[in-house]
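Our example copied in:
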Amino acid sequence: MVEHSDPRAAASRRLYPGATTTAHLYWFVRRVPPSAGRNLRLSDLNLNPEEDPVEVKSITEQKSLLEGLPAGKRARLRRMLFEFGPGNGTLMLLPIDQGIEHGPRDFFPNPASKDPDYQFRLAAEAGYSALACQIGMATKYFPDYAGSVPLILKVNGKTDIPPSNRALSTVNASVEDAVRLGADAVGYTLYVGSPRQDEDLLQLKGVREDCDRYGMPLIVWSYPRGEAVEAKGGQNSFYAIDYAARMAMEMGADIVKLNMPKIDPDKDKDAPAPYNEGGFSQQDAIAHCVESAGRSLVVLSGGSKTDDETVLRNTREVMEAGGSGVIFGRNVWQREWNEALEIVAQIKEMIVASVSRTP
C-alpha cells in the first residue's frame, strides 16, 4: 500500500479502515476540506454526484455487486435498481409484513392501511422499487399489481407475542413460490445473536441455495436479538448493527436490510472495543455498517413513524454513507393517502440527490 502523509488521507483511513488503495483514499481526499484534518466526519464530505459525476462509484472502490452476479439475479436486481422506484441504481422499498411482525395495532393510526390493497396501490402509484410481503398477501393481492411494482416475497416470519430473547423466524414459503408469483427477490429475516441462531443459519442455508439455483436475489433482514446482545449495548447499538451487517453479507445476502444504528454512550460502554470508546456519530456508524457489508447493497429502515425532517435526514445520511436506499413502511403507509404520496416524492428526491454508490 502507498503511504500518504496528507492528514486528509489519514482521516479517511481512520474513518474507513478498509481504505487500502490509493484510488480509495483519493476518492475520499477529494471531498475532505483541507481544514478538516483529524476532526473529519462524513458530513464534511462533498458527495454530490451532479458536481462530480465521474466520481460516483462504489464507496469501497471495489468490483460492483451486479458485475459478479449470474444473469437471473442480475436481471431481477436491475429491474428494482434502475427500472422502478427512484432508479439510478438505488432502492426505495415498502415493507408491508407488519401485520404479522407487529400485529394489527400498526394500522390504527391510518385505518385505511388495514386493507392490503391500500398498501399495494401505494407501492405501485407512488413508484416504489419493490414491496415486501408474506405469501398470503402476495398470493391474494399481488396479481392485481404484477408488472406495476416488483415483489419481494418474505419466506419466513413470526409474531411478536413471545419474548424476543430466543427469536427465530420460521420458514413458511419457498423460493419456488417466489418464482411462481413473479417475484424479483426473496426476503429472509435473520436474528443475529439469538440462542437459536444455529437453527436460523441452517434455515438460511437452504433458502440461499434455492436462491442460487433459481437466480433469485436474496435480501436478508439482519436483526440482532437475544440476552447476549442486550448485555453488549442492545439490539440497535452500533456494535450490534455492524455485526449484523457483516453476518448477512458473509451468509450470502445480495442486499442487507438493517435498522438504523443508535449512538447511546450509556449503553455503548458495555459493547466490545472499539465500539465502547466513543467518538462516533450516527453517520460514522452508518458508514462503518455499509463498509462491513462489502459488495452487498445496504438499505436502512426508518422504524416507527416520525416527523418529515427526521425521515429526510435519515435518508440523506444513509445515501451519503454509501447505502443503496431505504426501506420505509410505517413512516409512509400510516399517513393519509395524499400525505403519503407527498413524503414519498420527497424521499425519492433526496435519494437521487444524495447517491454516492453505484451497485
